[in-house]
Amino acid sequence: GAVVSQHPSWVICKSGTSVKIECRSLDFQATTMFWYRQFPKQSLMLMATSNEGSKATYEQGVEKDKFLINHASLTLSTLTVTSAHPEDSSFYICSVGTGMSNQPQHFGDGTRLSIL
Amino acid sequence: EDQVTQSPEALRLQEGESSSLNCSYTVSGLRGLFWYRQDPGKGPEFLFTLYSAGEEKEKERLKATLTKKESFLHITAPKPEDSATYLCAVRENTDKLIFGTGTRLQVFP
Question: How far apart are CA B52 and CA B15, in angstroms?
Fold first, then answer.
């Protein structure tokens, strides 16, 4: 399956700061990547689908102006949390889709974001 | 509304004590049911994909089965290293994955 690298692993920053998270597909050219958010003891909730060379598709209730997604190449998608506040503190995880319906998504190791 | 429900929320087993985890789902147009393992502070690790009722997959001490309404993850003679959260997810027509809340498994020596 696809090998997915996510960076940074964790970040602590002050309220109002913008934070960028990178998701790289190391061995697969991914036209589609997914961004999830996971709160403690809760499940993964899809935030948006990142499409290479086009705009991301956001899930209902996710502010596209707050969570900026860029997928400029087949191996890199970035999620920028703009003007982060304590309620944005969460575990953010990306995954790579192969585009084939019979293949699973493969996930990065996540980014723990803590906003003070 | 599409939904995935996992039970139990938490499970404590003695090493060697076999058990099963349940994943019940309601989804229009199932295009696959996936089991993942998630360790604390890590992303989900893929275990199995199931597509049709009656299908079974095995890997070491784990066996996944599927019916039209639910899937089971059977753990035979578990070891402490099997301790993790096990997540079930279904893929619907839009290719999105809908995750359950997971079962936190602890296996004690």
Answer: 32
* Per-residue burial over B53-63, b = 16 or more CB atoms within 10 Å of its CB, e = otherwise: eeeeeeeeebb
Interface of B with A (CB under 8 A): 31-32, 34, 36, 41-46, 49, 51, 87, 89, 91, 95-97, 99-102
pLDDT in tens, B18-61: 999 999 999 877 889 999 999 999 999 999 999 999 999 999 99
Report the Cα B50 to chain-centroid distance in Å. 11
Write the pLDDT tens digit of every residue in A14-53.
999 999 999 999 988 888 999 999 998 888 999 999 888 8
The Cα angle at residue A29 between residues A20 and A108, in degrees rounded to 5: 45
Would the pLDDT of A101 be above 70? no
pLDDT at A88: 96
User: B96 and A110: CB-CB below 8 Å?
Assistant: no
Q: What are A's interface residues with B at a Cβ cutoff of 8 A?
A: 1, 4, 6, 34, 41-46, 49, 91, 93, 95, 97, 101-110, 112
- Report pLDDT for B95: 72
B106: which chain A residues are within 8 Å (Cβ-Cβ)? none
Per-residue pLDDT band for A99 (boundaries 50, 70, 90) equals low
Tokens at A91, concatenated: 């575990």
Give the nearest partner residue to A46 out of B32, B34, B96, using CB atoms: B96
